[in-house]
Each structure stands twice: as structure tokens, then as C-alpha cells.
Design brief:
This protein is of the alpha+beta class. The protein contains four helices and seven strands.
């Protein structure tokens, strides 16, 4: 298991446990797009538009290996929606009333990071490795979207839903983004 997978599992486990202990929070914590030392991250260059058109979001995350210690995930399920090529993984829960976790990867060929919509928690700029990124937490639903630039006209969104705490959802989105980014097409 890679260093990123182990860290992702630890963050998801801590985030879910923290949300369960603390309840929900309407206050959105400031984003920290640097959970690792930048020198430890593989560098990436921007993919070309042609490469992005072939990008399959379902190929970017393998729940069986990347998330095996978190639990069993249904999916990936391909759901092209709202102008995006999307792929969704959902944590299978023993207790239907318990906290959930849904991970979505949405490739948006005609939307930039700058077009990420404020859904109530602001839009915070940042970077994932060498790529421009922005985060949009939704405190009303406790969801979080982290957009990562693919090129000057497109992006991929990491969406986290069904958690009980917006800050935990954004932490998980960042971890998934750092896992997925090195797998994105290189120029």
C-alpha cells in the first residue's frame, strides 16, 4: 500500500471518528492544501486538451486497494451529469443511520478552477502539487468539492458527500486529491 493510501485511510478514519464525537459544525475551517511536504510529492506538468478528452475518472481511484482499510465501497459507478464525466464510489455501511462517505470524481472539460461555485462556505484557492486548485465547502450539506486544474480550460473535481462534518469532508477531499493528482495525464 502506498504512503498516500495509508495517509488517506488514516485521515478518513480520524475525520469520521471526529465528526461522530463532536457532532456537526457550521463553521468551516481554513483550507490547508499542504498536508505533505511538497518535496515528497511527485511533480506534474499540465496535460494537453486532447489527453483530457480521454480521461476516465473511474480509472483514477481503486477503492479495493486505495481505500481497503476504510471499508468496502460500491462502485465505481459511471454517472455523466451536468456537463461532467463522473465516477462515484459509496462506502457500504453496516448501520444505515451511521455516517457515510461518497467520493465523486468529475472531469469538467469546459470549466476552469476559477469557475468553481461558492455554495455557502466560500471558495478558497490553493494548489495540489503543482496544479492550481480551489476548495468549496458546503456547510449546509456538509459536502466539499475540491477542483484541480487539468489545463487552462478544464478541471477535475473531487467531491465528498454524506459525511457529518464539512471540515472532515474537506480533509478527505484533499487526501483523495493528493492520491489522484499524480495519476492525471501528464503533458
Amino acid at each position: 500500500m502506498s504512503q498516500h493510501s495509508s495517509l488517506l485511510i488514516a485521515i478518513i478514519t480520524m475525520a469520521m471518528a471526529s465528526a461522530a464525537c463532536n457532532g456537526t459544525s457550521d463553521e468551516v475551517a481554513e483550507a490547508d492544501f499542504s498536508p505533505y511536504n511538497a518535496a515528497d510529492q511527485p511533480s506534474s506538468s499540465q496535460p494537453s486538451r486532447t489527453d483530457n478528452a480521454q480521461l476516465n475518472p473511474c480509472s483514477l481511484l481503486d477503492a479495493a486497494s486505495d481505500l481497503s482499510e476504510v471499508g468496502t465501497f460500491a462502485g465505481p459507478t459511471r454517472k455523466d451529469r451536468a456537463g461532467a464525466r463522473s465516477c462515484v464510489w459509496q462506502l457500504e455501511r453496516d448501520n444505515p443511520a451511521g455516517e457515510g462517505l461518497v467520493i465523486a470524481l468529475d472531469v469538467r472539460d469546459d470549466q476552469t478552477v476559477d469557475s468553481l461555485t461558492d455554495v455557502g462556505g466560500g471558495v478558497r484557492p490553493g494548489a495540489i502539487n503543482d496544479r492550481t486548485a480551489a476548495e468549496a465547502p458546503d456547510p449546509a450539506s456538509n459536502d466539499c468539492t475540491l477542483a484541480i486544474e487539468l489545463d487552462t480550460t478544464s478541471r477535475i473535481d473531487v467531491g465528498i458527500a454524506a459525511m457529518d462534518d464539512v471540515n472532515a469532508a474537506c480533509e478527505v477531499a484533499r487526501e483523495v486529491a493528493y492520491l489522484v493528482e499524480p495519476r492525471l495525464t501528464k503533458a
